[in-house]
Amino acid sequence: MLKIQTKKIIMRQYLPRCCSVFVLLCLPSLSFQISKANCTFPDFLERDKLWRSGTEHHDFSRMYFNGDYIDIVKNDVRFEKRCKEIIDREKGLYIVVELPKHGGFNTRNTYSCMQFLKRSDSVVQIKESNPSDILTLSLCNEPNMVLRNRPIIKFPIKDNPSVKCPFSGGYNLKITYNSQSMCGTSIIPPRLESECEEGDGVTLDFRISECKLDNDHSLQEKLRCLASWTDKTLENNYTFVVLANNQRSPLCMRLEGNLSDLKRATIFPDGRCVVNEWDSYSQPIERASLDMEKMVVSNLCEDEFDYCSQEQACAKFEKYCSKSCRKCQPETNVCSFPEELKGVWHTDLKSVPSMINISTYNLHLPGEGNFKCVGKANSTEENAYRLSLLHIFENGCYPRMTCFEYKKSSKMTLQYKFGERVEWPKFPLEKMIHDTCQDRKLEKPFSVAVNGAQVYTTSCQLPSDFGFKSGHLYLRDATSQDYCIAYYEYSFGRSDKFNMVDINATSPVNREHLCLSSKKLENGGVFVITTSLSDRSYRCWGFLGSGSMRRIVQLSLENCNENTFSSIEYGYRSYLNSFSVMEEPKNMCTLVLDIAVNPEDRPFFTPPVSVPPSPPRATTPPVYRTPADPGSISAEDPDSGSSTYACSAFLLLSVFIIHSMYVL
Question: pLDDT for 127-159, tens place per residue?
């Protein structure tokens, strides 16, 4: 009995002390993990940059992000929000605490949940819960989150990159601003064009002062797209676009329905991107409603709108009614493409393999549209010819004039370039045709296109001092892949091809390259165009340098010209691939390449013309997605609270044991 009492006394003395030690060890785990030093906002919220929302006249606020806090000035009141907990880094969800600064009225900390939705590198939308005195994860429940209509935008605007606008086409407009019809009694419709050519952005042409939304607008606004995203629900199918130039605050455009056939859009001049007609503060929305009508112009001599057919139109609107007012004749200035140009020509456009299809009166470029021949002009370059083309858009964009300059460099290859575009219409049309082909509009270098109908080879004319006389050459590219190359002019009398083998491959393939054209450069180098019958690919090669500086470079057909090769020599341009001639090891290639095959013994074929793929449909731009920070613990991570739960359980058990001991 005495032993039992002694044990009870010892347990009563030491067990509470042991439990106290464990309590002290567990307390840090029990504290909310909001104090972690690695709680920082997303990297795309660039530090020490000004982020603004609203305009000088509408809910203007400024934000600076600096790792774990946001410095905010709104309505002349400055305060700070600090990152307290990363709830879901992938979704951009954060618990923040608001700290008043500089004499703010609220002296208590409040908590809220913020979600950052990345729309582009320079545009971010914020969803936020209402502030609460209590810190709880339920703040981030979806019903508690409110989407702020005004995105925050990085400044200065001029430093922000443009994105491709989500729609292309041209439309005549009917504008209603805050429920009031614009433009008065004028029948000249304002006009909107977007991405008629890639990189154009959006042009808003009000035509007359009465159609302008406010005095801040010019008669013609050229705007860049900074971001776009979609909002699709059962009720709505919206696409939002943030538009800006360097002269005015950004505005937001809401497009409704099918982007390829728009009927209606809304402009919010104060920068809001409104899903519903009333924002979260139940404030009325300033908006301009646009009714959109597409009109396709397919000829040089055309009217700009339907009213031109009215008898009285020419008295006031001759400028816009050139066809009805007989300022031009539809039948004039029609020309045809020379016979030698007709057919399919393979080339590269914007670094993508493409085809130019030329018929009697039209030239077609996939992704660009149709070009109609409307006039001929003289060229100042020897053996070069110029044609004035009318670029026709099926999406409602007004046509544009461009000059097509070309010269045949061989039976198989065509050097060509398109000049700068000239906007339609300009009168007299004959002068417009002439001005389109002025030298200053054709300053860019030629590209190369290859006839896809048949194969005619020519001498490669590779440099005599490049080393082919001594046999095969050993090459190494930028990725340390090894190749052998052989040119047979000096050994077998075959000058119209060279062979090349990737000797690192498990089963080396002897690839034959047939020369279709060749031209010597001023520096002694040579560039050639080849085709490989195994896959009917087309390549541009440059054989440059001499001695230990010998190398072979590959370019796209789009950049295959003397200017590019000269720029490469001085290190100003890049290339698709480069091969250096290696002196060691000796005799690396002697047994790799086969003896040349007589071209007459090899069957040539004409491949079927491939149909270019349809352009991809518009998709929803991704909302912010970045890998989870391995150093952070998400409040939704099932493993993140394991130590907390263990300590809590132990504390409850300790209390129960202590209580039992005292009862005993």
Answer: 999 999 999 999 999 999 999 989 999 999 999
Q: 301, 366 in Cβ contact below 8 A? A: no
Q: Residue with structure tokens 């100042």? A: 380
Strand, coil or helix: 82: strand
Q: How far apart are CA 534 and CA 641, in angstroms?
A: 61
pLDDT of residue 354: 93
Alpha-carbon distance of 149 to 271, in angstroms, equals 8
- Which of 292, 289, 251 shows the shortest CA–CA distance to 268? 251
- Please answer whether residues 383 and 186 qualify as being in contact, where contact means their C-beta atoms are separated by less than 8 angstroms: no
CB-based contact 557:448 (threshold 8 Å):
yes
CA dihedral sign of residues 502, 503, 506, 510: positive
* Burial group, residue 52, by CB count within 10 angstroms (0-12, 13-18, 19+): buried
Can the peptide bond before residue 330 be classed as cis, meaning omega within 30 degrees of 0? no
For all residues of the chain together, what is the average pLDDT?
A: 80
Q: Rounded to an integer, what is the distance from CA 307 to the centroid of its chain?
A: 39
Are the CB atoms for 355 and 611 separated by under 8 Å?
A: no
What does the block give as tokens for 537? 């690919």
Q: Where are the domains of the chain?
A: 50-159, 169-293, 339-451, 468-601
332: left (phi over 0), alpha (psi -120 to 50) or beta: beta
User: What mean pLDDT comes out for the span 217-239?
Assistant: 90
- The CB-side HSE value for 387 (13 A sphere, CA atoms) comes to 23
Task: For residue range 479-512, list pLDDT tens digits in order.
Answer: 889 999 988 776 677 789 999 998 888 888 888 9
Residue 204 CB: number of other CB atoms within 10 A?
26
Question: Which of 196, 40, 225 has its CA nearest to residue 120?
Answer: 225
Q: Is 141 exposed, middle or buried (0-12, 13-18, 19+ CB in 10 A)?
A: exposed
Is 530:515 a contact under the CB 8 Å cutoff?
Answer: yes
* One-letter-per-residue 3-state SS of 235-304: CCEEEEEEEECCCCCCEEEEEECCCCCCCEEEEECCCCCCCCCCCCCCCCCCCEEEEEECCCCCCCCCCC
Chain position carrying tokens 């409850």: 652
Work out the burial of residue 287: count CB atoms within 10 Å of its CB; fewer than 13 is exposed, 13-18 middle, 19 or more buried. buried
Query: Tell me, what's the pLDDT at 285?
Result: 79
Residue whose C-alpha is closest to residue 373's, from 389, 356, 360: 389
**Residue 386 and residue 401: Cα distance in Å, rounded?**
13
Fold of the 339-451 domain:
Lipocalin (2.40.128)
Q: Give the residue ranges of DSSP H helices in 391-460.
A: 429-436
Report the DSSP pairing between strands 202-205 and 77-88: unpaired
- Residue 67 corresponds to which amino acid? G
In this predicted structure, the answer to whether residue 404 has a pLDDT above a threshold of 90 is yes
Q: Which residues pair with 94 in a beta bridge?
A: 86, 114
Angle at 555 between CA 549 and CA 557, to 5 degrees: 150
Bigger pLDDT: 649 or 230?
230
pLDDT for 278: 58
Residue 425 φ then ψ, to 5°: -100, 155
For CA atoms 26, 28, 34, 38, the dihedral sign is negative
Is the CB of residue 269 less than 8 Å from the CB of residue 286?
yes
Q: How big is the CA angle at 626 (ends 621 and 631), to the nearest 5 degrees?
A: 165
- What is the SS3 string spanning 322-358? CCCCCCCCCCCCCCCCCHHHCEEEEEEECCEEEEEEE
